[in-house]
Amino acid sequence: MTQSAELGPDDRVLEVGAGSGYQSAVLGEIAADVYSIEIVPQLAVRAGLTLRRLRYRNVHAIAGDGHAGWERAAPFDAIVVAAAPASIPEALVEQLADGGRLVAPVGTGADQTIFRLRQTSGGVVSEELISVRFVPMTGDH
Predict the structure, then answer these.
(1) Whole-prediction pTM value?
(2) How far apart (Å, rounded) are the C-alpha atoms in residues 101 and 91?
(3) Which domain holds residue 51?
(4) Structural domain includes residue 118
(5) Is residue 9 in a domain?
(6) Cα–Cα distance for residue pair 82/15, rounded to 1 Å
(7) Rounded to 5 degrees, what are φ and ψ at 123?
């Protein structure tokens, strides 16, 4: 998913689903700034503390519902979603910068596919990448 997001060194990235902070750190090694949101408050706190201890000054973690994204920090050059919503939340699409990419597993149960969306001047272009199975995205749908 990180490779599919086509990250560059100047990119601002939103990660939905911080978990332990591992993916946040990977993204922080590639991109200029990473904003990671995690729905489980204890995980968000732990990820934030771990990232600070490891001196990732360009990675920011908060607790919140990933369906809403992180509007205050938008727009993003890339958004990487680490849990499967039934459909891509419109708020995330709205927070993409021009040329921005969103990579997310989408679907329910065993029927999930990673999609890459690209924000273009003509609208959003969607591409199916691979069948997968992720945990369901929780929060407001």
Answers:
(1) 0.94
(2) 14
(3) 3-132
(4) yes
(5) yes
(6) 8
(7) 120, -165
3-state SS, one letter per residue, for the chain? CCHHHCCCCCCEEEEECCCCCHHHHHHHHHCCEEEEEECCHHHHHHHHHHHHHCCCCCEEEEECCHHHCCHHHCCEEEEEECCECCCCCHHHHHCEEEEEEEEEEEEECCEEEEEEEEEECCEEEEEEEEEECCCECCCCC
Q: Higher pLDDT residue, 111 or 32?
A: 32
Q: Which residue type occupies 37?
A: I
State pLDDT tens for residues 34-79: 999 999 999 999 999 999 999 999 999 999 999 999 999 999 999 9
pLDDT interval class at 110 (50, 70, 90): confident
Longest Cα–Cα distance in the chain: 43
Task: Tell me how many domains the chain contains.
Answer: 1
Is 134 a residue whose pLDDT tops 80? yes
Percent of the chain with pLDDT over 90: 91
Q: Residue 98 corresponds to which tokens in the numbers above?
A: 């021009």
pLDDT band at 141 (very low <50, low <70, confident <90, very high): low
Residue 127 domain-assigned (yes or no): yes
